[in-house]
């Protein structure tokens, strides 16, 4: 995959060693392009595996390839919303209202706020129309019916999703709902950060995103001008926040941190576990493989999750392409 970095260039106008930025805001157009491309690449690899593997495992590979292909289409649709229906600064008002002063965590959005915010609702309908035809007819009909519902019905589903009440959400709609909410939140935070310098200095509390309060989708070790720095990436607004390496992303302890992989110690994808709180977060080493994409490659390494859960560790990250059961 051609590397199209979504990480802004380091400002080198100030002489000397640059300070570590607490927060990084991605270039969203490049982020969606990279993610969609990586999903397509992984789908192609799964198709090849289905051809090469024994008959017993080939059907599973084909199903997974189909899902990765669908997700590539969904992410590309997010990119088209960004390009053709960008959020205005005025439309960021609901998100601005959630940001408390200082470095305290943002307020959790209410169902009423979600009901009164039209942008993400229109984005949901657009995503269903754009990417829904890759799904079975029954699922398409269910999504179209939900998109046509009153705002309160859609908002109730979105509120349950953001609150972690996954069993209360239409299973076929969850990925579309999060994609719509994410393309709204990501644009809002990026726009607000252009005028609000305090957003660039916010700090995470309890492992949650400092700009929207959502859980991370994993952590990245960067390459290039920020070689070796570790940032966690938000599952909702895509913001990245700095975290010292070998420090638990959830409880900040450092005494019992271990790294796991199925390869050698130089594996580009590892899991960082904490023996104190028993949580784990995957670590994607862009300094070892710059083609990695946090959501796509997380989904492609679920076997590592299964192995860690057998060891008693609890996943602290959220992948909006695969919500907890």
TrEMBL record:
The keyword Secreted does not apply. Residues 248-321 form the FdhE C-terminal domain. Residues 209-245 form the FdhE central domain. One of its GO terms (molecular function) is ferric iron binding. Gene3D superfamilies: FdhE-like domain. Residues 65-196 form the FdhE N-terminal domain. Transmembrane segments: none annotated. It holds the Pfam family FdhE_N. Belongs to the FdhE family. This is Protein FdhE homolog. It comes from Acetobacter persici. The lineage of its organism: Bacteria, Pseudomonadati, Pseudomonadota, Alphaproteobacteria, Acetobacterales.
């Amino acid at each position: 995959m051609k590397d199209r970095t979504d990480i802004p260039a380091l400002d080198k106008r100030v002489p000397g060693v640059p300070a570590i930025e607490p927060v990084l805001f991605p270039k969203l157009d490049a982020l969606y392009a990279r993610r969609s491309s990586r999903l397509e690449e992984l789908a192609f690899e799964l198709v090849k595996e289905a051809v090469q593997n024994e008959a017993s495992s080939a059907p599973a590979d084909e199903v997974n390839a189909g899902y990765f292909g669908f997700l590539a289409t969904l992410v590309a649709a997010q990119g088209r919303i960004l390009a053709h229906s960008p959020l205005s600064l005025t439309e960021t008002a609901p998100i601005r209202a959630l940001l408390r002063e200082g470095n305290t965590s943002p307020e959790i959005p209410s169902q009423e706020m979600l009901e009164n915010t039209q942008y993400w609702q229109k984005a949901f309908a657009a995503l269903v129309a754009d990417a829904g035809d890759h799904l079975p007819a029954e699922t398409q009909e269910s999504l179209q019916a939900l998109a046509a519902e009153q705002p309160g019905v859609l908002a109730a589903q979105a509120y349950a999703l953001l609150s972690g009440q996954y069993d209360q959400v239409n299973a076929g709609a969850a990925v579309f709902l999060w994609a719509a909410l994410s393309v709204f939140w990501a644009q809002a935070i990026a726009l607000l950060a252009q005028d609000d310098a305090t957003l660039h200095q916010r700090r995470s509390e309890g492992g949650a995103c400092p700009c929207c309060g959502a859980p991370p989708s994993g952590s990245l070790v960067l390459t290039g001008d920020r070689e070796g720095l570790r940032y966690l990436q938000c599952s909702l607004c895509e913001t990245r926040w700095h975290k010292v390496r070998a420090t638990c992303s959830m409880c900040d302890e450092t005494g019992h941190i271990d790294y796991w992989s199925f390869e050698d110690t130089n594996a580009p994808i590892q899991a960082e576990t904490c023996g104190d709180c028993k949580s784990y977060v995957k670590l994607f080493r862009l300094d070892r493989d710059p083609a990695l994409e946090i959501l796509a490659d997380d989904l492609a390494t679920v076997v590592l999750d299964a192995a860690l859960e057998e060891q008693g560790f609890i996943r602290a990250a959220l992948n909006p392409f695969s919500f907890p059961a």
